[in-house]
């Protein structure tokens, strides 16, 4: 079939919205008509080369839509089902999935390839070339073909241009606070970077019962928004946060510090550890440049105070369990999704959406189909 998609033809270039050819789904695959897709910073990492993945590719990995067709062997989904994509597939059978680590499913080894999981070939084509797809999904398109391992069924009552946020940012931020960080009632928590992931780390820490919840961001708009989502204090940088946390905790430091800025830096690890108290945890959720190999920290401080630095992918969550759980919190009014969508865009305006993201104008921009 013919459809329309936003393609990155070369690193550093713009998103080119144009017609593509899309093959029908093969074994284990589904054809989905998109209803919404979040404009996540991870796609920007491919544009800038922080993630040096091959091009050309159809962007987008935070999406939700309606199943149009299914390939052979698909038994759990049928045309008409509404689904949200988990950007990491969860096969349910590998050692990681069976151990309660769906976010680390062994199929994730193929994330950077941009080809279909079933046979490692392309379904998307344009200008006589095969196209890769961002994180096996390619949600910057009116239609896409994905593996059923990436699909989680939705109920009818959640708008697709809100449900799409659960495909990455919501679960990643929430889980960074609740699962990877283990925020508990009465804790002091710090979230460094209040974007589409950090704002949900704020929500997660607030609902977990943090007494002091400090949001750190240089953009005044994002600091104001953090207060609406549960932060008790906001500051512009880590130096201010260090002083504030010391005052709030009588010098003891925070239990959890979560790094969720757009691009991580090695020296931020040291700054976050400095805010952290004894047996406290620094959660590194944001992506760092692939070529970065140097991290600053005091190893002596790490040892003497038993501090921890942990990485977190997809919020250390189990998406097939946690996405329905978070949607129930949305239904009950305890999880804000509508409020996190600052602006919606047409597919043709995707470059404007990313310009707004870079300018700090959005918590999350969303493509609405």
Main sheet record: 7 strands, mixed
What Rg is obtained from the alpha carbons, in whole angstroms?
20 Å
Low-confidence stretches: none
Mean pLDDT: 95
Structural class: alpha/beta
The overall strand count is 18
Strand content: 25-35%
Distance between the termini: 18 Å
In N-to-C order, the SSE pattern is EEEHEEEHEEEEHHEHEHEHEHEHEHEHE
The helix content is: 25-40%
Tally of separate helices: 11
Inertia-based shape = globular
Any overview of this molecule?
The protein has eleven helices and 18 strands. It is an alpha/beta fold and 369 residues long. The strands form three sheets. Strands 3, 5, 6, 9, 10, 17 and 18 form a seven-stranded mixed β-sheet that branches. It has a six-stranded parallel β-sheet with strand order 13-12-11-14-15-16, with helices on both faces.
